[in-house]
Amino acid sequence: MTGDPQTGGLGQVELSLMDPQPSREQILAVVGHARQEGIGAVWVPSTSFPLRGTGGEGEPSLCTVAGYPTGQHHVLVKASEAHMAVTHGADEVTVVLDPSHVFGGLDGTGDPNALISEIVTLREAVPYPAVLRVAVGTVRGPGQTQTGERVPAAVLQTVARAAVTAGADVVVGPSDDTVGESSTASGVEETVRILAEATEGSPVKVMSGRVLSFDEPDALAAVEQLTAAGAHRVVLDAGSLTSD
Question: What distance lies between CA 163 and its chain's CA centroid?
Answer without folding.
Answer: 14
